[in-house]
Design goal:
two-stranded antiparallel ribbon; 361 residues; MetI-like fold; 2 strands
Length: 361
């Protein structure tokens, strides 16, 4: 197992370097750098002025060298100005050049400065990832037990009326995009002129005009059931159907195995057969799918966070991409790659423990 984990860690490191380099190369293409120069200096800059600004601010030179400086394995660039002052990647404002560190990249905790939020990228990502972390937590709390319950109930008795009803619900929820289900939930539960909110207000069952809040901005400071339920439900509905279908397929396959029939012939009750014999084996495939939901939730909440104006990771990614905030985009790529690789490692290790045949091999 130790050799397996070490080998996986080595592959993860190479994968992280390859993916982050691709993102770095794409975000540092000449059109993007030219747009950055004109947005930071002047939109009427000539081509030679743009090239001079890029060279003076560390965006010139070979892309591999700039990538190594961004990672923090190569010394940061240094420039001597005409007035005798020294500027550089590692020289902060008010810092003496001799006191500046030689390396200042991602490995040293220096993620750059956001041109949109006017803050260090580390602070921007800390806030946004923390907000999305709470959203991911409550989505998983709702989505995983619900989807597993629906999948197990559906797969226990294949072809029954319960199976058909639950399968129809799972297919419908998966086939409905988040921007559609989100709008429907807002119209039904968070509109003062449509849905059930006007009726509840007329009957005096709610104090305000709407049952739920149609925006989750207030949840950034104080999460409540009323301002967080709709974004959680919008994201969870999409994932519930997918996991439930995978669980149903796995449960259906397990229930037809010979050892299940043998247990039934020995007089073991149907409940014990399901709980003690079928359920663990049926959860092997859904476990992998559940672990894949973490990177999907981190990168796939863009629509929901934008729809409900929740300033999390997805919202930050949209703002950075729309405003050519290169440092923030690179920081988002590091977080996304890290989450994907770590969840894949946990998924592989968990799969080995769940499946004895793989562990023995």
């Amino acid at each position: 197992m130790l050799f397996f984990v070490l080998r996986r860690l080595g592959v993860m490191l190479l994968t992280a370097l390859a993916l982050t380099f691709i993102v770095f190369y794409m975000t540092n293409l000449p059109p993007n750098l030219e747009k950055l120069a004109k947005s930071e200096a002047s939109v009427r800059m000539a081509d030679d002025a743009v090239a001079s600004w890029l060279e003076e601010n560390g965006h010139g030179g070979p892309v591999l060298l700039r990538y190594a400086q961004w990672i923090g394995v190569a010394p940061g660039w240094v420039r001597l100005e005409d007035d005798g002052t020294t500027r550089g990647r590692c020289i902060a404002s008010g810092m003496a050049p001799e006191d500046a560190p030689t390396y200042c990249g991602v490995l040293q905790g220096q993620w750059g400065y956001s041109t949109v939020f006017k803050q260090p990228v580390s602070e921007v990502l800390g806030r946004s990832v923390g907000a999305t972390g709470w959203l991911m937590l409550w989505v998983m709390v709702v989505m995983v037990p619900t989807s597993l319950l629906l999948g197990v109930l559906s797969g226990m008795r294949e072809g029954s009326r319960t199976d058909r009803v639950l399968s129809t619900f799972a297919i419908a929820s998966t086939a409905t995009p988040e921007y559609v289900s989100g709008v429907i939930l807002i119209a039904m539960l968070a509109s003062a002129t449509a849905g059930i909110s006007p009726l509840l207000a007329d009957w005096g069952w709610i104090s305000g005009k709407t049952l739920f809040q149609g925006t989750a901005t207030s949840a950034m400071d104080d999460i409540t059931f009323w301002n967080f339920a709709l974004p959680v439900a919008t994201i969870a509905l999409y994932g519930i159907g997918y996991i439930a279908r995978m669980t149903r397929a796995s449960m259906t396959e397990v229930m037809t195995q010979q050892y299940i029939r043998t247990a039934r012939l020995k007089g073991v009750s149907f409940k014990q057969v399901v709980m003690r014999h079928a359920l663990r084996n049926a959860l092997i495939a859904p476990f992998t799918v559940i672990m894949l939901q973490f990177p999907w939730l981190l990168n796939g909440v863009v629509i929901s966070e934008t729809l409900f104006n929740y300033k999390g990771f997805g919202w930050t990614l949209v703002q950075a991409a729309g405003n050519n905030d290169i440092d923030t985009l690179l920081g988002c790529s590091v977080v996304a790659v890290f989450v994907v690789l770590v969840t894949q490692l946990i998924s592989d290790i968990g799969y080995v423990f769940l499946n004895p045949r793989i562990r023995l091999a």
